[in-house]
Every structure is written in structure tokens, then in C-alpha cells.
Design brief:
The protein has about 210 residues and is mainly α. The protein is built from 9 helices and no strands.
């Protein structure tokens, strides 16, 4: 069940992973970006976790609206802005709810990913975070809607696996957006740092449920 407490716990798991992978994300971003990816994601998710842990508000929509502002303020980068779009999309889907079951939470996550695609004018296959977020979210939503007796931990493990496979697929893609697009052919063979952030988000979800 998604509520204020579980949302804060999930943010804490993701933040720990971003901290552990800070230098790795920096090294990936140095290939075709400005090298600040690990710094901004570590700072952003830490601020997100601290914000949610301190809140007494129980409306998930209001919590996520505030979380988006806290995150983007601490991670003033293109990916920070993109992820805040996603949180705002989730906030709209969960407005007025103090808790959400697995299906509702998965559908809210899907709404967040759709908000990213709309605002960033991007889609899977363009060597971005969406190459991990979309397959991960799709696996989670389809699994949740199918129901059955599959445990939440198993649903999130499968989603994390789908996100990891999506991230790995970016090695064979040419960059379409950002600084890397200026030398798109050189981006082939290189793992996209944003997609690794997407993978880590789903790893954090899976760790929370394990």
C-alpha cells in the first residue's frame, strides 16, 4: 500500500542507491555530458527523502507536488527537471488520496512517465531515462492489473529487471537529446547515464519491497 510512510521509505531506498552510485553516474556522464549527473541525482534524491520524511501531510498528491519542488531545487539539472515533471504527473493522478493500492500506484507511476514524455517531447529509443522507465513501468502496471497471487516484491523485481534490460539497450542507440546529440555517432556503444538512473529508481522500489 502506498501512503506517506511507504513513499518516504521508497525515497530513502532510492537515495541510498544514488549515493552508492554517485561516482559511477559521474563517470558515465563525463563521456558525453558535463559530468554532474551523479552529483545532481545524489543531492536531489537525498533532498526528496528528507522532505518526505519530515512531512505530516497525508494527501499523496500534495506530498508529491512538494516533493517535486524539493527535488528540482536540489537537482537543478535537465534530468532533475524531467523527473520533477514525472512527480507532478503522479501528483495529479493521486490528488486527494491518502493511500493507493498496487494497481492505483502503478497507474500513477505510468501517468508520471507519460508526463515526462509529453513535457520532454521524448519517447523510448532515444537514449534517455525513458528507455528504463517505460519498460519498468509497463511491467509493473501489467503485472499489477493482471492480479493473481503474485507478491508485490516479485512484481517489483520483474519491473526492475525490465528497467535494467531497457537501460542496457541504450548502448546500441544514438543520442537524440542534449549535448550527446551533437556527436550522436560517438554515443553508440556507450551506456546512457539517465537510463541508469531509471534502473536505480526501480532497484530502489524492489529493495523497499524485498
Amino acid at each position: 500500500m502506498l501512503n506517506r510512510e511507504s513513499l518516504a521509505a521508497i525515497a530513502g531506498e532510492i537515495s541510498a542507491l544514488m549515493t552508492a552510485n554517485r561516482n559511477y553516474l559521474v563517470s558515465l556522464d563525463q563521456v558525453s555530458g558535463d559530468g554532474d549527473l551523479g552529483i545532481s541525482m545524489d543531492d536531489g534524491f537525498r533532498a526528496l527523502a528528507e522532505y518526505l520524511a519530515a512531512q505530516e501531510q497525508t494527501d499523496l498528491g500534495q506530498l508529491l507536488r512538494g516533493a517535486a519542488k524539493a527535488f528540482n531545487g536540489a537537482a537543478p539539472s535537465s534530468l532533475g527537471t524531467i523527473l520533477s515533471f514525472g512527480m507532478m504527473g503522479m501528483a495529479r493522478a493521486l490528488r486527494g488520496k491518502t493511500e493507493a493500492d498496487v494497481v492505483t500506484a502503478a497507474q500513477a507511476l505510468q501517468a508520471g512517465v507519460e508526463a515526462i514524455m509529453d513535457k520532454a517531447e521524448s519517447k523510448p529509443g532515444e537514449k534517455t531515462i525513458l528507455d528504463a522507465l517505460v519498460p519498468g513501468t509497463t511491467a509493473l502496471t501489467e503485472g499489477a492489473v493482471a492480479g493473481g497471487e503474485t507478491a508485490l516484491s516479485e512484481l517489483l523485481r520483474r519491473a526492475a529487471e525490465a528497467a535494467a534490460q531497457g537501460s542496457e539497450s541504450t548502448r546500441e542507440m544514438e543520442a537524440v537529446h542534449g549535448r550527446a546529440a551533437y556527436s550522436a555517432s560517438r554515443s553508440i556503444g556507450v551506456l546512457d547515464g539517465g537510463s541508469v538512473v531509471g534502473r536505480l529508481i526501480f532497484e530502489g522500489l524492489a529493495a523497499w519491497a524485498a
